[in-house]
Specification:
With 484 residues, the chain is of the alpha/beta class. It is built from 14 helices and 14 strands. It has two domains: 366 residues, Alkaline Phosphatase, subunit A (3-Layer(aba) Sandwich), CATH 3.40.720.10; 79 residues, Arylsulfatase, C-terminal domain (2-Layer Sandwich), CATH 3.30.1120.10. A hairpin with a 3-residue loop joins β11 and β12. The longest helix is centred in the middle third of the chain and has 31 residues.
Amino acid sequence: MNYVRFAKSMTAFWAVLALATAVSRPAVAAEDAPQSERPNIVFIFADDQCFQTIGSWNNAEVQTPHLDSLARRGTTFTHAYNMGSWSGAVCVASRTMLNSGRFVWNANEIWNRSEQERQEGRWWSEYLKAAGYRTYMTGKWHCKADAEKAFDVAKDIRPGMPKDTPQGYNRPLGTDDHNWSPSDPKFGGFWEGGTHWSEVVANHSEDYLAQAAGRDEPFFMYLAFNAPHDPRQSPQEYVDRYPVEQIKVPENFLPLYPHADLMGCGRKLRDARLAPFPRTPYSVQVNRQEYYAIITHMDAMIGRILQAIDDSGKADNTWIFFTADHGLACGQHGLMGKQNLYDHSVRVPFFVVGPDVEGGRKVDQPIYLQDVMPTTLDLAGVEKPQHVEFQSLLPMLDGQPSQYDTVYGAYLDLQRSVRTDHHKLIVYPKAGVVRLYDIQADPKEMHDLAGDADSRPIIEDLFAQLRQQQAAMNDPLDLSGFQF
């Protein structure tokens, strides 16, 4: 199917209808359009899930049968990125970009506005509401807006992370360190309230889909897991699937990252304190064991959601999108969190399943994960609002190239990056350091080429591209005097 032509035809139809009936609505006039023409949309959102954690795609060590099924049924965008963050809580920036449609620094401006300015006619869900969709939400929100106003139905709206405990940090100190258990409810966290938070998302999702099955209007569901964010807790049966001695230490493991303090990932960073300094292979194995276990548990809950979609009787007219707000290092490069610009922390899984979407296809050109927002507006026939900067993926599903020549990355005023299809340049302004990687030959970003004399022209070219990206994105960091 030519999705672009379909969406444009629907937009034109509804625009004519609006003029004929003299009804004025913000950005779209679709309420009287034929219900069958507007697909249902289910958005499933993970938290902290690195792109390297899909069993059938790139990591046989991880058991993800239901995510594997999405990959088989639909199209995988293999190079989906988050732009970064103005905050140590990277998910805040990612989710504000997602729901506002704005690039990182323009989204930061929205974050700092009043609630009324943020809310009125500016959120993803509001545009779909105006198009006649009934909207549902559960799970992690982490935006400066009232989810109960943004959605028709919203339950168990979660904060940035489950409440943690001191026992969850600086561990394990050795093989005899058993002060923490990811399956023990006494530590609260994901167990707070008596039911694991991932199971709560699945419970509400099933309820929502049962409700939607009996209604005529199309639906939009925003189903946001807190998993696999720390504290990475799951039932013991899932932990037992990953014997710690069988967990592989990442090939790019380091005991300490050489520029950690000056790029904002030193001992003061909360995420960095999850494992001991210096990192040990065993501590990384245990942290990754728990990471994989909570992903597999979440995968089981996603399986319940997929079954509920089938049971609703509306699967044939439903689009499913799965992605995550950003990735996670979890021991790679000596880092534990996501406050860095390596691919393991900015690159995420991204699957699209829908009517006539090609199954088993992989698209290797770059996108941003927040492109899902305008994609769904496109599907719903909503004219793209002027402030939305991300791009619909429907043209790429039709075989057209990505609209992004480079991938931009930022973290506070401490890190910047630019990525092409061949190289990545990372800049640490406070440290006065650049790092250069040939990502085709070195996808795990293990060999810094910045010190090679032959690399100077590449660095100069990428730095110029970075400055261009900064200007286009209203990046407030001045790199004009940076020396490399």
